[in-house]
Amino acid sequence: ALFLYWIMAFVTKTIKLVRYCQDGVPFSQLRFCITGIMVILYGLLMAVEVNVIRVRRYVFFMNPQKVKPPEDLQDLGVRFLQPFVNLLSKATYWWMNTLIISAHKKPVDLKAIGKLPIAMRALTNYVCLKEAYEEQKKKVAEQPNRSPSIWLAMYSAFGRPILLSSTFRYLADLLGFAGPLCISGIVQGFQNTTNNTNTTEKVKDPSNSYLSSEEFLRNVYVLAVLLFLALILQRTFLQASYYVTTETGINLRGAL
């Protein structure tokens, strides 16, 4: 059902975008930009659904792949659910509400915290680092002048979360420019409003019912909302970067 919905939404938005092109609506119009973004978004969601059907081999396949829940979720002693919750819960740590509420009532002990997931245990990370180091030894086995690099082994085992943490930090730093730009636009918008009260304002052509992206971004209320969202996203990306960095550091230390 969800796959059919993405197909219908993608086709509908594509027809709407083609109609805008036939009517000669320029790219600078807000409605054209929003429709183009929706076409790309629905196309990506449809591609994700197609990939899930291909990997799981269901709907059109005779022998679907059986999906078992992770072993950590089957263990009632594991209460650290960060790797298994959805994206919104990961960003807001909503899954920790039960632990936080219980911590307000009484002191938290190790039994309430529970066990660590398998992927975060020292033995698991040690095996992962050892396998990466063994791969390095195989690569340099035919080269007697070279020795296996522990740095390359650590990068091979833990490089992906390090790159993810760096990406989150770069995004947070880029969003730091949104604040001054929005504030500058808000101040300029109020100045233009004050100046327009003393001059004759230009009458807009009623035949042109489309709002341009430039006019939309000049609105002070829109800039205020964008400033609020930019600050929330900046703090979210910073928190995600700190969390991934701390978790990777703990896993690497446990592996060593």
UniProtKB/TrEMBL annotation:
<keyword id="KW-0547">Nucleotide-binding</keyword>
<dbReference type="GO" id="GO:0008281">
    <property type="term" value="F:sulfonylurea receptor activity"/>
</dbReference>
<protein>
    <submittedName>
        <fullName>ABCC9 protein</fullName>
    </submittedName>
</protein>
<comment type="similarity">
    <text>Belongs to the ABC transporter superfamily. ABCC family. Conjugate transporter (TC 3.A.1.208) subfamily.</text>
</comment>
<dbReference type="GO" id="GO:0016020">
    <property type="term" value="C:membrane"/>
</dbReference>
<keyword id="KW-0325">Glycoprotein</keyword>
<feature type="transmembrane region" description="Helical">
    <location>
        <begin position="216"/>
        <end position="233"/>
    </location>
</feature>
<dbReference type="InterPro" id="IPR000388">
    <property type="entry name" value="ABCC8/9"/>
</dbReference>
<keyword id="KW-0677">Repeat</keyword>
<keyword id="KW-1133">Transmembrane helix</keyword>
<keyword id="KW-0067">ATP-binding</keyword>
<dbReference type="GO" id="GO:0042626">
    <property type="term" value="F:ATPase-coupled transmembrane transporter activity"/>
</dbReference>
<feature type="transmembrane region" description="Helical">
    <location>
        <begin position="29"/>
        <end position="48"/>
    </location>
</feature>
<keyword id="KW-0472">Membrane</keyword>
<dbReference type="GO" id="GO:0006813">
    <property type="term" value="P:potassium ion transport"/>
</dbReference>
<dbReference type="InterPro" id="IPR050173">
    <property type="entry name" value="ABC_transporter_C-like"/>
</dbReference>
<dbReference type="GO" id="GO:0005524">
    <property type="term" value="F:ATP binding"/>
</dbReference>
<keyword id="KW-0812">Transmembrane</keyword>
